[in-house]
Amino acid sequence: MREFKNKVAVITGAADGIGKALALKGAKEGMKLVLADIDTGKLDRLIEELTASGTEAVGLRVDVSRAEEVVALADLAYTTFGGVHLLINNAGVALAKNAWETTHKDWEWVMGVNLYGVTNGLSAFIPQMLASGEECHVVNTASIAGLLSEPSMAAYNVSKFGVVTLSEGLHHDLTLRQAKIGVSVLCPAWVKTRIAEADRHRPADERIDLAQLDKVTAATGMAMFKAVKNGVEPEEIAEATFGAIRDGRFYIITHPQTMAGIRIRMDDILQKRQPTLLPI
Ligand SMILES: NC(=O)c1ccc[n+]([C@@H]2O[C@H](COP(=O)([O-])OP(=O)(O)OC[C@H]3O[C@@H](n4cnc5c(N)ncnc54)[C@H](O)[C@@H]3O)[C@@H](O)[C@H]2O)c1
């Protein structure tokens, strides 16, 4: 997709962080926006801000883990603007826990938002994109944790590896059908957002209590908290994402320093070595 002006973009998790930066970038490119989030206060303020500056934008409270709410988002987009050209499945949550500390509720929460949030987006939008015959693009937000297995991030890693393979398979399925739908998978490392406080949306008794975690997990969690705080600005990720859509690039690797780790992991597999523990 080389032209964005007057095209329609749907972005999930758009009220904050990377999603908000993507929405502002879409507005700057002259797109019409359909924005979704569970944080209605922030979403409403963003819609007001965008509308005041002349962007056509609508918002809906959507929990992406609930298929019927994502279908309602698609209905809103098609009834408001008559089409969708860019879908960014961005909403996501993070959890610092190793596999044996991760509860069933934790798995349901992380997989529900990060993986099923994306599958719900594909089911709700791709059939209508195919039927329209128009040039479209889908971006799925994974993470570098979809290409490298971080310690103390069991559910997050699984969900993000899932998003990467889902996106690769989607690319093949659309290519085999000569569909005019491009696909990209966004794999950033640390970005300065509120992702480390993602459990702010969970009931109090399901939030992380560092004192309950073993020392290694608590230390890794703190290191990640700091890494996010010192991460790149979300606007940088939005620029890279729109650049990749324009160029039709599949893998969006926003932090060049992560390439060395990806190579090490691939070599570990090819040489049948033990997995290398990479620095955070
Ligand atoms: N920040 C990073 O370092 C980083 C790195 C790699 C990947 N990512 C990914 O980027 C994406 C955006 O995260 P962010 O860093 O901007 O975090 P963020 O917490 O700042 O923003 C996430 C947004 O998603 C919304 N959200 C949470 N659960 C939702 C749900 N069930 N339905 C709809 N919306 C929901 C939140 O309200 C929030 O507005 C996520 O998929 C995350 O995994 C972030």
* Gyration radius, rounded: 18 Å
- In helices, the fraction of residues equals 40-55%
Spans where pLDDT lies below 50 across 5 or more residues: none
**Strand neighbour order, sheet with most strands:** 3-2-1-4-5-6-7
Mean pLDDT: 96
Q: Bound small molecules, which ones? A: nicotinamide-adenine-dinucleotide
Series of H and E elements = EHEHEHEHHEHEHHEH
How would you name the CATH homologous superfamily? NAD(P)-binding Rossmann-like Domain
Could you say which structural class the secondary elements and strand pairing correspond to? alpha/beta
Number of strands: 7
Strand content: 5-15%
Query: What's the level 1 CATH class?
Result: Alpha Beta
Q: State the helix count.
A: 9
Name of the CATH architecture: 3-Layer(aba) Sandwich
Number of domains: 1
Distance from first to last alpha carbon: 34 Å
Query: Biggest sheet, open or closed, and with what strands and sense?
Result: 7 strands, parallel
The shape is: globular
CATH topology: Rossmann fold
Please give a handful of descriptors for the protein shown:
280 residues, alpha/beta, Rossmann fold, 7-stranded parallel sheet, binds nicotinamide-adenine-dinucleotide
Q: What report would you give on this structure?
A:
With 280 residues, the chain is of the alpha/beta class. It has a single domain (8-270), classed as Rossmann fold. The protein is built from nine helices and seven strands. It has a seven-stranded parallel sheet with strand order 3-2-1-4-5-6-7, with helices on both faces. Strand 5 (136-141), helix 6 and strand 6 (181-186) form a beta-alpha-beta unit. It is globular. Residues 12-13, 15-19, 37-39, 62-65, 90-94, 113, 141, 143, 188, 190-191, 193-195, 198, 201, 228, 231 line the site of nicotinamide-adenine-dinucleotide.
